[in-house]
Specification:
Strand content: under 5%
Helix content: over 70%
Number of helices: 18
Distance between the termini: 16 Å
Largest sheet: none
Order of helices and strands: HHHHHHHHHHHHHHHHHH
Shape: globular
Length: 438
Protein backbone atom coordinates (compact mmCIF):
# COMPACT_ATOMS: atom_id res chain seq x y z
CA UNK A 1 0.00 0.00 0.00
CA UNK A 2 1.02 3.61 -0.23
CA UNK A 3 0.68 5.99 2.60
CA UNK A 4 -0.68 9.47 2.20
CA UNK A 5 1.26 12.36 3.61
CA UNK A 6 0.06 13.61 6.91
CA UNK A 7 -1.64 17.00 6.95
CA UNK A 8 -2.23 17.88 10.56
CA UNK A 9 -3.20 21.56 11.12
CA UNK A 10 -0.37 23.56 12.76
CA UNK A 11 -2.31 24.03 16.03
CA UNK A 12 -3.10 20.31 16.20
CA UNK A 13 0.50 19.38 15.43
CA UNK A 14 1.81 21.65 18.16
CA UNK A 15 -0.61 20.06 20.63
CA UNK A 16 0.52 16.57 19.62
CA UNK A 17 4.19 17.55 19.88
CA UNK A 18 3.77 19.09 23.33
CA UNK A 19 1.79 16.08 24.52
CA UNK A 20 4.53 13.70 23.40
CA UNK A 21 7.18 15.82 25.10
CA UNK A 22 5.16 16.11 28.32
CA UNK A 23 4.86 12.36 28.53
CA UNK A 24 8.54 11.65 27.93
CA UNK A 25 9.58 14.35 30.42
CA UNK A 26 7.46 12.68 33.09
CA UNK A 27 8.59 9.16 32.24
CA UNK A 28 12.28 10.07 32.16
CA UNK A 29 12.01 12.30 35.21
CA UNK A 30 10.77 9.30 37.16
CA UNK A 31 13.56 7.22 35.63
CA UNK A 32 16.29 9.76 36.42
CA UNK A 33 15.38 10.58 39.98
CA UNK A 34 16.10 6.93 40.67
CA UNK A 35 19.55 7.30 39.10
CA UNK A 36 20.28 10.44 41.12
CA UNK A 37 19.09 8.82 44.34
CA UNK A 38 21.10 5.68 43.57
CA UNK A 39 24.24 7.78 43.16
CA UNK A 40 23.65 9.91 46.26
CA UNK A 41 21.86 7.94 48.96
CA UNK A 42 20.68 4.40 48.08
CA UNK A 43 23.99 2.88 49.18
CA UNK A 44 23.20 4.09 52.72
CA UNK A 45 19.47 3.38 52.66
CA UNK A 46 19.27 -0.03 51.01
CA UNK A 47 22.84 -1.42 51.19
CA UNK A 48 24.22 -0.05 54.47
CA UNK A 49 26.31 -3.11 55.36
CA UNK A 50 28.48 -2.95 52.24
CA UNK A 51 30.29 0.33 52.79
CA UNK A 52 30.32 3.40 50.56
CA UNK A 53 32.12 2.05 47.48
CA UNK A 54 30.48 -1.38 47.28
CA UNK A 55 27.10 0.03 48.28
CA UNK A 56 27.25 2.67 45.56
CA UNK A 57 28.29 0.07 42.98
CA UNK A 58 25.34 -2.15 43.91
CA UNK A 59 22.94 0.81 43.99
CA UNK A 60 24.04 1.75 40.47
CA UNK A 61 23.63 -1.89 39.46
CA UNK A 62 19.97 -1.72 40.48
CA UNK A 63 19.74 1.31 38.20
CA UNK A 64 21.11 -0.87 35.40
CA UNK A 65 18.49 -3.58 36.03
CA UNK A 66 15.91 -1.40 34.30
CA UNK A 67 17.92 -1.45 31.10
CA UNK A 68 17.57 -5.22 30.94
CA UNK A 69 13.81 -4.80 31.28
CA UNK A 70 13.55 -2.08 28.63
CA UNK A 71 13.75 -4.32 25.52
CA UNK A 72 11.05 -6.55 27.00
CA UNK A 73 8.95 -3.43 27.56
CA UNK A 74 9.43 -2.44 23.94
CA UNK A 75 8.28 -5.88 22.80
CA UNK A 76 5.30 -6.00 25.18
CA UNK A 77 4.01 -2.48 24.62
CA UNK A 78 5.13 -2.48 21.00
CA UNK A 79 2.86 -5.47 20.39
CA UNK A 80 -0.18 -3.66 21.73
CA UNK A 81 0.87 -0.34 20.21
CA UNK A 82 1.11 -1.91 16.75
CA UNK A 83 -2.03 -4.03 17.15
CA UNK A 84 -4.36 -1.78 19.12
CA UNK A 85 -2.98 1.73 18.79
CA UNK A 86 -0.41 4.19 20.12
CA UNK A 87 -2.66 6.23 22.44
CA UNK A 88 -3.92 3.52 24.79
CA UNK A 89 -0.48 1.98 25.08
CA UNK A 90 1.07 5.30 26.04
CA UNK A 91 -1.53 5.86 28.77
CA UNK A 92 -0.65 2.43 30.18
CA UNK A 93 3.10 3.09 30.22
CA UNK A 94 2.52 6.39 32.00
CA UNK A 95 0.40 4.76 34.72
CA UNK A 96 2.88 1.92 35.20
CA UNK A 97 5.77 4.33 35.60
CA UNK A 98 3.78 6.52 37.99
CA UNK A 99 2.79 3.61 40.22
CA UNK A 100 6.33 2.22 40.34
CA UNK A 101 7.89 5.58 41.17
CA UNK A 102 5.41 6.35 43.93
CA UNK A 103 5.98 2.89 45.42
CA UNK A 104 9.76 3.51 45.53
CA UNK A 105 9.12 6.76 47.38
CA UNK A 106 7.05 4.89 49.98
CA UNK A 107 9.32 1.82 50.20
CA UNK A 108 10.60 0.96 53.72
CA UNK A 109 14.38 0.82 54.08
CA UNK A 110 16.62 -2.15 54.85
CA UNK A 111 16.79 -1.00 58.45
CA UNK A 112 13.00 -1.44 58.69
CA UNK A 113 12.18 -4.61 56.74
CA UNK A 114 15.59 -6.15 56.13
CA UNK A 115 16.58 -7.84 52.87
CA UNK A 116 13.03 -7.51 51.50
CA UNK A 117 13.68 -3.78 50.91
CA UNK A 118 16.37 -4.15 48.20
CA UNK A 119 14.39 -7.03 46.63
CA UNK A 120 11.29 -4.85 46.30
CA UNK A 121 13.47 -2.02 45.04
CA UNK A 122 14.73 -4.22 42.19
CA UNK A 123 11.17 -5.37 41.34
CA UNK A 124 9.93 -1.77 41.15
CA UNK A 125 12.97 -0.81 39.11
CA UNK A 126 12.12 -3.57 36.62
CA UNK A 127 8.59 -2.18 36.31
CA UNK A 128 10.08 1.26 35.63
CA UNK A 129 12.23 -0.29 32.92
CA UNK A 130 9.23 -1.97 31.29
CA UNK A 131 7.36 1.34 31.25
CA UNK A 132 10.22 3.35 29.73
CA UNK A 133 10.83 0.54 27.25
CA UNK A 134 7.34 1.07 25.87
CA UNK A 135 7.30 4.85 26.20
CA UNK A 136 9.88 6.21 23.79
CA UNK A 137 8.70 4.58 20.56
CA UNK A 138 5.05 5.44 21.19
CA UNK A 139 5.75 9.05 22.09
CA UNK A 140 8.00 9.45 19.07
CA UNK A 141 5.43 7.94 16.73
CA UNK A 142 2.83 10.46 17.96
CA UNK A 143 4.89 13.16 16.29
CA UNK A 144 6.69 11.28 13.49
CA UNK A 145 3.49 9.71 12.12
CA UNK A 146 1.50 12.95 12.31
CA UNK A 147 4.15 15.48 11.26
CA UNK A 148 4.34 17.15 7.84
CA UNK A 149 6.76 15.08 5.78
CA UNK A 150 9.23 17.93 5.25
CA UNK A 151 9.31 18.79 8.98
CA UNK A 152 9.38 15.35 10.57
CA UNK A 153 12.76 15.94 12.22
CA UNK A 154 11.56 19.25 13.64
CA UNK A 155 8.47 17.77 15.28
CA UNK A 156 10.05 14.45 16.26
CA UNK A 157 12.52 16.39 18.39
CA UNK A 158 9.82 17.13 20.98
CA UNK A 159 9.83 13.68 22.61
CA UNK A 160 13.64 13.75 22.23
CA UNK A 161 13.66 16.72 24.61
CA UNK A 162 12.17 14.53 27.34
CA UNK A 163 15.48 13.15 28.71
CA UNK A 164 17.29 16.52 28.77
CA UNK A 165 14.42 18.41 30.39
CA UNK A 166 13.80 15.54 32.79
CA UNK A 167 17.45 15.41 33.86
CA UNK A 168 17.52 19.15 34.50
CA UNK A 169 14.22 18.88 36.40
CA UNK A 170 15.41 15.90 38.46
CA UNK A 171 18.65 17.70 39.31
CA UNK A 172 16.69 20.81 40.30
CA UNK A 173 14.36 18.79 42.52
CA UNK A 174 17.23 17.16 44.38
CA UNK A 175 19.06 20.49 44.54
CA UNK A 176 16.09 22.09 46.30
CA UNK A 177 15.99 19.28 48.85
CA UNK A 178 19.76 19.53 49.35
CA UNK A 179 19.56 23.27 50.01
CA UNK A 180 16.59 23.09 52.36
CA UNK A 181 17.54 20.19 54.65
CA UNK A 182 20.53 18.63 56.35
CA UNK A 183 22.40 15.63 54.96
CA UNK A 184 20.90 13.50 57.72
CA UNK A 185 17.36 14.58 56.89
CA UNK A 186 17.95 14.00 53.19
CA UNK A 187 19.25 10.48 53.83
CA UNK A 188 16.40 9.77 56.25
CA UNK A 189 13.39 10.99 54.30
CA UNK A 190 14.24 13.89 51.97
CA UNK A 191 15.18 11.61 49.07
CA UNK A 192 11.59 10.36 49.01
CA UNK A 193 10.10 13.75 48.10
CA UNK A 194 10.94 13.69 44.35
CA UNK A 195 9.46 10.20 44.01
CA UNK A 196 6.21 11.04 45.78
CA UNK A 197 5.88 14.46 44.12
CA UNK A 198 6.06 12.81 40.68
CA UNK A 199 2.40 11.82 41.13
CA UNK A 200 1.47 15.42 40.30
CA UNK A 201 3.36 15.25 37.02
CA UNK A 202 1.75 11.92 36.15
CA UNK A 203 -1.68 13.48 36.65
CA UNK A 204 -0.83 16.25 34.19
CA UNK A 205 0.54 13.77 31.67
CA UNK A 206 -2.50 11.53 31.95
CA UNK A 207 -4.83 14.48 31.32
CA UNK A 208 -2.87 15.47 28.21
CA UNK A 209 -2.65 11.98 26.75
CA UNK A 210 -6.29 11.10 27.22
CA UNK A 211 -7.18 14.08 25.02
CA UNK A 212 -5.10 12.82 22.08
CA UNK A 213 -6.35 11.03 18.97
CA UNK A 214 -4.72 8.04 17.30
CA UNK A 215 -1.98 8.79 14.75
CA UNK A 216 -2.95 9.18 11.11
CA UNK A 217 -0.50 6.49 9.95
CA UNK A 218 -1.95 3.93 12.34
CA UNK A 219 -5.52 4.78 11.32
CA UNK A 220 -4.58 4.37 7.66
CA UNK A 221 -2.82 1.07 8.36
CA UNK A 222 -5.83 -0.31 10.26
CA UNK A 223 -8.22 0.84 7.53
CA UNK A 224 -6.15 -1.04 4.97
CA UNK A 225 -6.08 -4.15 7.25
CA UNK A 226 -2.28 -4.30 7.16
CA UNK A 227 -1.72 -4.81 10.89
CA UNK A 228 0.57 -7.65 11.93
CA UNK A 229 -0.55 -10.52 14.15
CA UNK A 230 2.83 -10.81 15.87
CA UNK A 231 4.83 -7.61 15.28
CA UNK A 232 8.03 -8.83 16.94
CA UNK A 233 8.15 -11.85 14.60
CA UNK A 234 7.86 -9.70 11.50
CA UNK A 235 10.44 -7.25 12.81
CA UNK A 236 13.09 -9.95 13.06
CA UNK A 237 11.94 -11.71 9.89
CA UNK A 238 11.81 -8.62 7.68
CA UNK A 239 14.18 -6.05 9.22
CA UNK A 240 16.76 -7.65 11.54
CA UNK A 241 19.56 -5.50 10.10
CA UNK A 242 17.58 -2.32 10.77
CA UNK A 243 17.07 -3.38 14.39
CA UNK A 244 20.69 -4.24 15.15
CA UNK A 245 22.31 -1.47 13.13
CA UNK A 246 19.82 1.04 14.57
CA UNK A 247 20.70 -0.16 18.06
CA UNK A 248 24.42 0.01 17.34
CA UNK A 249 24.10 3.47 15.87
CA UNK A 250 22.40 4.71 19.06
CA UNK A 251 24.60 2.93 21.64
CA UNK A 252 27.09 5.80 22.00
CA UNK A 253 24.19 8.17 22.76
CA UNK A 254 23.18 6.06 25.73
CA UNK A 255 26.76 5.50 26.88
CA UNK A 256 27.53 9.20 27.06
CA UNK A 257 24.17 10.16 28.48
CA UNK A 258 24.10 7.70 31.36
CA UNK A 259 27.73 8.31 32.22
CA UNK A 260 26.69 11.95 32.47
CA UNK A 261 23.45 11.60 34.42
CA UNK A 262 24.33 8.78 36.83
CA UNK A 263 28.03 7.96 37.05
CA UNK A 264 29.28 11.55 37.07
CA UNK A 265 26.85 12.46 39.86
CA UNK A 266 28.54 9.86 42.04
CA UNK A 267 32.03 10.69 40.68
CA UNK A 268 31.65 14.39 41.40
CA UNK A 269 30.51 13.95 45.00
CA UNK A 270 32.72 11.00 46.00
CA UNK A 271 35.95 11.06 43.92
CA UNK A 272 36.19 14.83 43.40
CA UNK A 273 34.52 15.61 46.77
CA UNK A 274 32.51 18.46 45.30
CA UNK A 275 29.49 19.63 47.32
CA UNK A 276 26.28 17.85 46.38
CA UNK A 277 24.46 21.12 45.53
CA UNK A 278 27.30 22.03 43.13
CA UNK A 279 27.10 18.70 41.30
CA UNK A 280 23.31 18.97 41.04
CA UNK A 281 23.45 22.57 39.82
CA UNK A 282 25.90 21.58 37.09
CA UNK A 283 23.48 18.79 36.18
CA UNK A 284 20.90 21.46 35.36
CA UNK A 285 23.42 23.24 33.12
CA UNK A 286 24.34 19.98 31.39
CA UNK A 287 20.70 19.16 30.78
CA UNK A 288 20.12 22.54 29.13
CA UNK A 289 23.17 22.10 26.88
CA UNK A 290 21.85 18.67 25.90
CA UNK A 291 18.47 20.20 25.03
CA UNK A 292 20.01 22.89 22.83
CA UNK A 293 22.13 20.47 20.77
CA UNK A 294 19.15 18.12 20.43
CA UNK A 295 16.98 20.92 19.01
CA UNK A 296 19.63 22.15 16.57
CA UNK A 297 20.52 18.69 15.27
CA UNK A 298 16.92 17.52 14.83
CA UNK A 299 16.00 20.61 12.80
CA UNK A 300 19.14 20.31 10.67
CA UNK A 301 18.29 16.67 9.93
CA UNK A 302 15.34 17.85 7.82
CA UNK A 303 17.81 19.69 5.59
CA UNK A 304 20.88 17.44 5.44
CA UNK A 305 19.50 14.01 6.37
CA UNK A 306 19.25 12.00 9.59
CA UNK A 307 22.25 9.76 8.99
CA UNK A 308 24.62 12.64 8.29
CA UNK A 309 23.77 14.32 11.59
CA UNK A 310 24.15 11.07 13.53
CA UNK A 311 27.54 10.52 11.85
CA UNK A 312 28.62 14.00 12.93
CA UNK A 313 27.45 13.25 16.47
CA UNK A 314 29.37 9.99 16.63
CA UNK A 315 32.58 11.60 15.32
CA UNK A 316 32.24 14.41 17.87
CA UNK A 317 31.71 11.79 20.58
CA UNK A 318 35.07 10.16 19.84
CA UNK A 319 36.85 13.43 20.56
CA UNK A 320 34.63 14.28 23.53
CA UNK A 321 35.24 10.88 25.14
CA UNK A 322 38.99 11.44 25.19
CA UNK A 323 38.78 15.09 26.32
CA UNK A 324 36.03 15.00 28.96
CA UNK A 325 37.70 13.35 31.95
CA UNK A 326 40.96 15.31 31.86
CA UNK A 327 38.77 18.41 32.07
CA UNK A 328 36.56 16.96 34.82
CA UNK A 329 39.57 15.82 36.84
CA UNK A 330 40.81 19.40 37.24
CA UNK A 331 38.44 19.12 40.18
CA UNK A 332 36.78 22.54 40.28
CA UNK A 333 33.07 23.20 40.05
CA UNK A 334 33.45 24.91 36.69
CA UNK A 335 35.67 22.21 35.19
CA UNK A 336 33.14 19.61 36.31
CA UNK A 337 30.34 21.61 34.72
CA UNK A 338 32.32 22.06 31.50
CA UNK A 339 33.17 18.35 31.28
CA UNK A 340 29.59 17.32 32.02
CA UNK A 341 28.26 19.77 29.43
CA UNK A 342 30.70 18.35 26.87
CA UNK A 343 29.56 14.79 27.60
CA UNK A 344 25.87 15.68 27.35
CA UNK A 345 26.27 18.20 24.53
CA UNK A 346 27.62 15.66 22.05
CA UNK A 347 24.74 13.34 22.96
CA UNK A 348 22.22 15.78 21.53
CA UNK A 349 23.92 15.92 18.11
CA UNK A 350 23.19 12.24 17.48
CA UNK A 351 20.08 12.01 19.66
CA UNK A 352 18.03 14.75 18.00
CA UNK A 353 17.65 13.04 14.58
CA UNK A 354 16.90 9.50 15.79
CA UNK A 355 13.36 10.52 16.77
CA UNK A 356 12.69 10.58 13.03
CA UNK A 357 15.40 8.17 11.86
CA UNK A 358 14.46 5.01 13.76
CA UNK A 359 10.72 5.20 12.90
CA UNK A 360 11.65 5.77 9.25
CA UNK A 361 13.37 2.37 9.17
CA UNK A 362 10.13 0.39 9.72
CA UNK A 363 6.60 0.11 8.24
CA UNK A 364 3.61 1.28 10.30
CA UNK A 365 2.37 -2.25 10.99
CA UNK A 366 5.38 -3.02 13.23
CA UNK A 367 7.01 0.40 13.60
CA UNK A 368 6.28 0.72 17.34
CA UNK A 369 7.94 -2.63 18.01
CA UNK A 370 10.88 -2.23 15.61
CA UNK A 371 11.87 1.29 16.63
CA UNK A 372 11.34 0.48 20.30
CA UNK A 373 13.50 -2.65 20.26
CA UNK A 374 16.34 -0.90 18.41
CA UNK A 375 16.24 2.03 20.84
CA UNK A 376 16.12 -0.10 23.97
CA UNK A 377 18.77 -2.59 22.88
CA UNK A 378 21.03 0.44 22.59
CA UNK A 379 19.93 1.34 26.11
CA UNK A 380 21.09 -2.04 27.44
CA UNK A 381 24.51 -1.76 25.82
CA UNK A 382 25.19 1.92 26.27
CA UNK A 383 23.15 2.84 29.34
CA UNK A 384 23.31 -0.40 31.31
CA UNK A 385 26.66 -2.04 30.49
CA UNK A 386 28.99 0.93 29.92
CA UNK A 387 28.42 2.65 33.32
CA UNK A 388 28.99 -0.66 35.14
CA UNK A 389 32.24 -1.26 33.25
CA UNK A 390 33.27 2.32 33.93
CA UNK A 391 32.84 1.89 37.69
CA UNK A 392 35.19 -1.11 37.55
CA UNK A 393 37.79 0.62 35.35
CA UNK A 394 38.48 3.69 37.48
CA UNK A 395 40.10 1.98 40.52
CA UNK A 396 42.49 0.06 38.25
CA UNK A 397 43.21 2.32 35.26
CA UNK A 398 41.99 5.76 36.30
CA UNK A 399 39.28 7.94 34.84
CA UNK A 400 40.93 8.31 31.42
CA UNK A 401 39.97 4.68 30.79
CA UNK A 402 36.32 5.75 30.80
CA UNK A 403 37.04 8.32 28.12
CA UNK A 404 38.81 5.74 25.97
CA UNK A 405 35.90 3.33 26.46
CA UNK A 406 33.45 6.02 25.37
CA UNK A 407 35.59 6.81 22.32
CA UNK A 408 35.63 3.12 21.37
CA UNK A 409 31.86 2.84 21.71
CA UNK A 410 31.50 5.95 19.54
CA UNK A 411 33.61 4.39 16.80
CA UNK A 412 31.42 1.29 16.85
CA UNK A 413 28.29 3.47 16.63
CA UNK A 414 29.83 5.38 13.73
CA UNK A 415 30.36 2.17 11.75
CA UNK A 416 26.78 1.05 12.40
CA UNK A 417 25.44 4.44 11.33
CA UNK A 418 27.38 4.34 8.07
CA UNK A 419 25.85 0.92 7.35
CA UNK A 420 22.29 2.25 7.75
CA UNK A 421 20.35 3.59 4.77
CA UNK A 422 19.77 7.33 4.53
CA UNK A 423 16.21 8.19 5.59
CA UNK A 424 14.27 11.24 4.52
CA UNK A 425 10.83 12.83 4.27
CA UNK A 426 9.40 10.09 2.05
CA UNK A 427 10.67 7.16 4.11
CA UNK A 428 7.46 6.40 6.01
CA UNK A 429 5.47 6.07 2.78
CA UNK A 430 8.21 3.95 1.20
CA UNK A 431 8.27 1.60 4.18
CA UNK A 432 4.50 1.13 4.11
CA UNK A 433 4.70 0.15 0.45
CA UNK A 434 6.64 -2.99 1.41
CA UNK A 435 4.50 -6.19 1.51
CA UNK A 436 3.78 -7.99 4.77
CA UNK A 437 5.62 -11.26 5.45
CA UNK A 438 3.89 -12.48 8.60
Amino acid sequence: MTHAATTQPPNSMRRIALASMTGTVIEFYDFFIYGTAAALVFNKVFFPELGTAAGTALALATFGVAFVARPFGSILFGHFGDRLGRKGTLVTTLLLMGFSTLAIGLLPTTGTIGVLAPILLVVLRILQGLAVGGEWAGATLLTAENAPTKARGKYALYPQLGPSVAFALASATFLITALTMSDAAFASWGWRIPFIASVLLVGVGLYVRLALEETSSFRSSKAATTSTRLPVAEVFTSRPAAVFLGAGSTTAVFAFFYIGVTYLTSYGTQQLELPRPTVLAMGIVGGLVFAMTTIASAILSDRVGRRRMVVIGNIASVAAGVAAFPIIDIGTAWSFGLGLSLVLGVVGIAYGPIGAQLPELFPTRYRYTGAGIAYNLAGVLGGGVVPLISAALVPVYGSLAIGLLLAGVSLASLLCTLALPQTDADSLAAQDAQPATV
